[in-house]
Amino acid sequence: MNHLLRGHAPLSDGNWQLLDDEARERLQGALAGRRLVDFSGPHGWEHSATNLGRTTPIGTAPCEGVAAAQRRVLPLAELRAEFSLSLAELRDDDRGAPDADLEPLDRAARQIAIAENVAVFHGWEGAAIGGIVETSPIEPRPLGESGEDYPRSVAGAVEALRGRGIDGPYGLALGPDEHLHAVETAEHGGYPLMDHLAKILCGGPIVWAPGVRGAVVLSLRGGDFLFESGQDLSIGYSHHDAEAVHLYLEESFSFVVATPEAAAPLSS
Amino acid sequence: MADAQGEEFKHFAMDLEFLLRKTPRWRQIAAGVLFQEGDIVAHGEAAEAESGDGGSGDEDDNGPGDGSLGIGSLKGA
Predict the structure, then answer these.
(1) A252 or B31: whose pLDDT is higher?
(2) How many of the other CB atoms lie within 10 Å of CB of B51?
(3) Distance from the A3 Cα atom to the nearest Cα atom in chain B, whole angstroms
(4) Which of A60, A266, B6, B25 is the most exposed place for a label (fewest CB within 10 A)?
């Protein structure tokens, strides 16, 4: 048994299968960053830092005649979202109930997905993570008031990237409101906006990104944005009482923007 | 022929990496075996024991499992 202590939880194998499947389904739809950036790992819970390949000079060496420097690394950050589930509901699941109430798990999954997305796209100062939007040197241009404005804005962002020598394919992350506008909009002639945007992006993905403010177009060529996973998202056990079991979703990761100009933000 | 053999080895490595990304427990076992000095069989048995795996790599058969949801990269998904 590892540090997640799952073996101590008063849950059947079937309960764990239910919870893992539910969490996986909820998370896969919401983890927008992982659809667009390079992913490394998982390297395990013991993995503590990302190699930046850089050094900081140390003014004083142990003796004369030598130079000294210290390696710089980016420590991995941990995210944890706690939730509690009714044991009665889980016993009903054991009996074959098809509608166990997993709402607390769903909320926790949404929150930790948003946290990961915000860190990737907008940064996380406390963890020394620079976000894709905040580090981009390209001035954000307005996405537009209505969905019909989106093609011109997205095309402008793609051209801004091409103009800086950033090759495609390109992907588009849209905040929830902006994604809703895009899905609902049919342009003049009834042509679905999403199809038009996909053509502008050379077939690249258009991603629903909860936690993202506005939108961002970025290159998917690789090597520009690196998400490094220590422990990938997992469910662990905290404690339980007579009524409920207290669990958590947890992960450790770092995120590095290697090419800030490989993303063009669009403001809402 | 040597060139074709090298090409197939590359494909084998790509297949292996794909499978390990999809199955965290296999990845854990592989990490204890690949690129390690010493006895290959001993490393394999130790890595399997450390992973808590009975050898199938299927969490369904192993109770609560190691806890990872195995999501990994979603690029291209």
Answers:
(1) A252
(2) 23
(3) 9
(4) A60
Q: Does B65 touch chain A (CB under 8 A)?
A: yes
Interface size between A and B, measured as CB pairs under 8 A: 76
Residues of chain A neighbouring B60 (CB-CB closer than 8 A): 13, 17
Give the separation between CA A148 and CA A188, rounded to whole angstroms: 9
> Which spans in chain B are helix H?
2-22, 24-33, 40-51
Percent of chain A whose predicted confidence (pLDDT) is above 70: 98
Instruction: Collect all residues with Cβ–Cβ distance below 8 Å to A256 and sequence separation of at least 6.
Output: A50, A52, A74, A130, A225, A226, A228
Q: What confidence category does residue A188 fall into, taking pLDDT thresholds of 50, 70 and 90? A: low
DSSP, collapsed to helix, strand or coil, labels residue A139 as coil
Which pair of tokens denotes residue B50? 């450390």
> In chain B, which residues have their Cβ closer than 8 Å to the Cβ of A13?
60, 63-64
Smallest CA–CA distance from B23 into chain A, residue: A42
Distances (CA, A) of B50 to A74, A144, A177, B21: 28, 54, 46, 19
Burial (CB count <10 Å: 0-12, 13-18, 19+), residue A137: exposed
- Chain A positions contacting chain B at CB under 8 Å are 1-2, 4, 6-7, 9, 11, 13, 16-17, 20, 23-24, 27-28, 31, 34-39, 41-42, 44, 220, 229, 231-236
Torsion region of A131: left, alpha or beta (phi above 0 gives left; psi -120 to 50 gives alpha)? beta
